[in-house]
Model the fold of this input.
Amino acid sequence: MANIIKNLPIGSLDVDKFIKVNFFPTKERGRSRNSTPQECRHLGILVKDGHNISSSQMIQRITCSKCGARFGNNVNEWDVNRYQERLKLVLYELFFEGCKQTKMEKRWGIPQPKLSKFKHDFVETVLEQYPDLLNSMPYDLSKGVIYGDETYLGKRGKSNTEILFTNDNFEVLSTGIGEKKHLEKSILKTFFKIPKEYRDKMRVLVTDGEQSYQTLTLLNSHKVVLVQQYHKASKLGQITIHKYQKFGPHILHYLIHTHWKLFKKEKHELGLKWEIKLIKGKLPIGRGRPTIQMTQSRIYKQWRQKKIEYESNAFQKIGSAKVYINPESKKISLRQGSKKWMQAMIQQIIIIFHGKFITNNRSESKNSQIKRTGNMRKQPNEEHSDHLFQLQEYIVKNGHLPQTFIKGRPLYKYLMKDAKSQKIGYKINLNKKEFNQTLIESYF
Done:
């Protein structure tokens, strides 16, 4: 163990900047002197607190001068500090260097199952102390755009499915478990984890070709434009722009079919294919037919008139059109076959994708970043997989672990195997008996 510690970059690397961990938490101790235990780190403020004397030996008691935490008889101040340094290095290797646990087993002498369990318990401890971990970090919804996608933690087909929503700055807004055969329900559940103040600001939602996102847009707001990029080989390069307009119990569904290079081309006049669908709804009248009073109301006649107008043969439900894009002002002008609803839909997304490809690259890039940084693999427990994904995103954004309290002394017997042989101290005589007094190196 001595050779292991010498080879690790303790002096050149300030692990405390990355590992915001507090050992031996005091928040559950009645004798704590500090009402805010987050401020206490125990390092450098451990003091002697008398002795435990038995017939054979005298053992120094240790306490923290700041928070009042006391430690067991079999622990001295030198061992406590060395153990904390070593455990922080283990956490650094697990979450920042992405070291394989099999290699860490050889380096630290800790069995791989013990390392895996320690990592699992640590992740669950963090999410237990920070249930709303992602929303605890500040972020912004610039341009009112949200990107949504599903990612696979492991090999596709044999992996956990994670649903992810990000903003235009590559920041994760919400994550959730993708339940098999209940993907639409999972997407809705994950989306509504985003605080309402941000959901109300959404104006553009960019996703892949999964149909469940259409339901999300329909339920959320008629002001939202949905942009779907298809990844199937038969539709590669195609995108569809959706918008919904409610009139009473019915909904008009507007669609524009085009190519993902729409705004990347230097052409100013662009051709589009469009489509209008009617989603019929039921009048909220309870049982029976509508009453005479309801059928004679002005709003009912408007609903009925629009429905009849759509169902008539004179109403064009599909076609092609052209629009003109001013490259300087980024304004859309109507051309042959185009209408105002097309102009409004395209105007909302040109602000985001002018001069770019229309892609879902924000969420796709975030998926790759987290999986690459955290060495993410399929986990036996889907809930733990989601927790691990959230923690890794926190690390990617902040560069350190959240301030966490670790209970007990996990991995102590493996990290402190050489504790007895490496204690630094001096001998003292007391009551005609000889004792070893241990010292902290930093006190010299």
In short: Residues 62 and 76 are 7 Å apart (CA to CA). Residues 2-130+402-443 form one domain. The chain has two domains: 2-130+402-443, 134-281+309-366.
